[in-house]
Structure prediction request, 180 residues.
Amino acid sequence: MIHTKLRYLRKKANKRLQDVAGATDLSPGYLSQIETGKAEPSISQLRRLAAFYGVGVVYFFESAGDDQILVKAGERPKFGRPDSPLVYELLRNSIPGIDLQAAIIKIAPYYEEPQGLFVTCQSEEFIYVLSGVLGFEYNGQMYFAEKGDSICYRASLPYRLFNPTADITEILGIGAPSAL
Prediction:
């Protein structure tokens, strides 16, 4: 499903693999493997691709008919491989006209974004720490949030999340318009 949506977005944007590769720091060959379903991008790679195409990461996991207003706890869509350092559990379905996303995000012990990778997008975001400690670097300033703490920020400025501890950190992330 991800591979077909990526190919669709690239064709719709009238871009070559080389164009996408240059903007996302991924090789054309690797992008081709992703688009043909022979490789699966990591969450950080998918975030770069989503930013390039101007969609939220959740776009790649939505399917037709997701417009139910109730999401049962055991039926939440999840993305991220079980061994992935970031696992997202979506708290809402895609509803036409609502451009808000909410997810529970589990961050593996000692996880950091790859060196020098900062995220930016055109949304406002809110994070509530459910458990553990969240490291948050925002616009050159470092913050550490613990269980019960919250962070609200404009995602148009560079930021990155990390887990500075040996325990899993779990956060509630909300973004509008949807950037997740």
